[in-house]
Amino acid sequence: MKCVRWKSNQSAEKVNDSLFVLFHDVQCSEQDVCCDAEEKEKMLHTCKMSSSAYKLSVAPEMDILEYSKKEWRGNTPVAKSMRKGYEAVARKFASIRQVRGDNYCALRATLFQALSQATQLPRWLQSEDFTMLPENLLSKYDWIKQWQLKEKPSRKTGEISDEIKEYLLLLKKKVGKWKCVSDIKCPVEKQEACDELLKNEEEEYRLHEALKFLMLNTAIELYNDEKNRRRVPIFSLLLFACDTSISPCQLMHNHLNQIGHSGGLEQVEMFLLAYALQYTIQVYRLYKFSTDELITFHPSNPEEDWPVVTLITEDDRHYNILVRTCQETML
Predict the structure, then answer these.
(1) In the prediction, which pLDDT does 32 show?
(2) What pTM did the predictor assign?
C-alpha cells in the first residue's frame, strides 16, 4: 500500500520566506491578476504567520474574532469561509493562543495544552522504569542508536541512551511543576507561570524529542501487539501499511527522525502522539468548515478517562491553541 505523506525538504519558515519574496517581487500580468487569487491570498497568509516573531513559543491569549479579522482581511471565498469558521468556534471558545510556526508546531501545541491542564501525573509518567525506557529499548533494538539528535547525527549507544534519559527526566520535572501551576487561581499569574516554564529554547527542544521517543515506544508496542494477533487501533494498521513505515525502524528513519527538522506531524502521527500521551487531541479543522469533519478526534474512540486538549488548524500543518470555554451551545 502506497501512502501519500506530506514532505518538506526545507523548514516551513525557510520555504515560506522564499514564497514571501517571490510573491512580492513578481510583476503580475493581466492574466495573473485573473487567476487563482485565493491561492495567492493563502500563500501570503501562511507567510505572515511564519514570519511573525514571538518572544514566547506560545503567544498570549487573544480574542478569537479579533484574531480572525486580523489574519483574514480579504473578501475571497477562502477568507470568508475562514472567518465563518472562526465565528462558529467562538461560540464554544473565547480565546486563541498562536503557536510558533515551525516543524515542532503540533508537538508544541499539544504539549503546552497538556501541561497547562495537568492536575496529576499521567499513569505512564508514574512508572518506576519510565526513565529506563531508552536503555531498555536499545537493549532490544539496535537500530534505535540511529535516532537523530539535534546537531549530533552520530552517537554511541550509551550516549543516546543517557541523553534521551535526560530528556525524559526533564519532561517529568516539567509536568510536576505545571501540576503546581494548575493550583494558581489568578488567571494573569497562572499565564505568567505557564509561560515561564517554556521560555528556554533548548529545554523545549528536549521536551519535543522526549515526546517523539514516547511515540516510538508506543509504535513498537502497537507493532508487537499486531504481530502477536492482539487487538490494535485502526490507525496502527494504517500506519504500518504505508511503504515508508512498514516497521517501527522505518517509521523512525523516514518520519520520526524528520519531525522538527524537515517535516511536521502528519494526521496518522497525531493519533500516535495521542496514544503515547494518553490524551485525546481534539482538533477544529477550519478548512473543513460546513462539513462533518470540522471537528476531528485523535483517537476517534478515546478512553473515557483520557484528558482532552483542543487545537485549531487551518490546513493540518500549523496548529494553534483554543482556550477558555464559553457557556454557549456547543457546535
Answers:
(1) 37
(2) 0.80
